[in-house]
Amino acid sequence: MPGAEVNSYAPDSAKASSIHSLKDTYATPVTEKLQAEMDQLAIVVQHTSDADNWTRHVSHAYLSDEHRRNHLTAGVLRGERLLSVAPALFQSKDQRHVIAVIHVGEALCGHPGIVHGGLLGTLLDEITAYTALPNLPGKTGFTANLNINYRHPTIANQFIVADSVLDSQEGRKAFVKATLKTLDGTLLADATALFIAPKIPVAEIKDQLEKNRSSSSSSSSASSTSSSSTETKAE
């Protein structure tokens, strides 16, 4: 469920002024070769050169090293045979359209050789978040609903294209449509999503959840102690 402050899902060109400014700690000869292949893809070349309409961003450039290690797609699932290279991420100038070119490795499968549907759902969740959040109050929000149609098996070890467009925005709600396709245009999956901006800052929500968890743990501990004491008296 993507949802965080603006820096988490709204690309920030000020923080990613150079496409290759970040040192990729997951780089290997294999992933470096894939990076070179990705940069030469027609769709990447086309959108990189069309600076009047598109801005290329460094995916997850805003993350600290600590956050990156625990982040699902930028850390846990990054590496050779996984999400091998950082996506080529493009945002339209009006911030209503986002395109990402992503490499899915052979270690992301459910059925042999076929990318797990849950992974595709995660990619759709992220691409729709990148589109929704810049258009919400406070540029932040949470996934409220994500409906996915799987149209065709996704073969592993290939580049795929995630394409997301803002359908409408009403107050604290943003409605988004997205697709996943192969480079030759075969539709793999499509989705609709609803994102909602919180009424209070995300930091306050996190603090409240932590307090609730601590309170629940304390109550459980007290209940366990009371139960143990009662059993001792009964003996």
Automatic annotation (TrEMBL):
Protein name from the UniProt record: Thioesterase domain-containing protein
High-level lineage: Eukaryota, Fungi, Fungi incertae sedis, Mucoromycota, Mortierellomycotina
Domain Thioesterase, first and last residues per copy: 113-188
Composition-biased stretches (Low complexity): 214-235
Segments forming a coiled coil: none
Region (Disordered): 208-235
Gene3D superfamilies named in the record: Hotdog Thioesterase
Taxonomic superkingdom: Eukaryota
One Pfam family of this chain: 4HBT
